[in-house]
Design brief:
Layout lengths: L2 H33 L1 H14 L4 H10 L11 H14 L10 H15 L1
């Protein structure tokens, strides 16, 4: 038995597994494409809503939340979508995270001033 024969056998097995996996993925995608038409509509609606916000406002809101303005490979549409996602996940957070220690110190200072 030659080493080349073993390598060829491994390569053939790999190709067969890949073909089977690829066929399964295609069947799953076909099933999702028929039921996923509503998801595409929702994405289109989100895109039109997020385009109404200027990039200056998007940058300001992301800075207020302590988030990076632009991640590697993001375009303006993805940045707006990320901001929208953050605002949906954390609706109560209007101005970003506040340091609890600073808030406690401020409260103590206010109490001392009142006394």
């Amino acid at each position: 038995i030659r080493g080349a024969d073993i390598a060829a056998a491994h390569e053939e097995e790999y190709r067969e597994k890949y073909k089977q996996k690829h066929a399964k993925d295609e069947s799953v995608e076909d099933g999702n494409s028929t039921g996923g038409s509503t998801g595409a509509g929702e994405t289109h609606i989100e895109d039109t809503v997020t385009e109404e916000i200027t990039m200056a406002e998007v940058r300001k809101r992301l800075r207020d939340r302590g988030q990076p303005i632009c991640l590697f490979g993001e375009d303006e549409q993805h940045i707006r979508a990320r901001l929208l996602k953050l605002e949906i996940e954390q609706p109560d957070m209007k101005e970003g995270w506040k340091n609890e220690l600073q808030s406690a110190m401020r409260d103590v200072d206010e109490e001392l001033v009142k006394e």
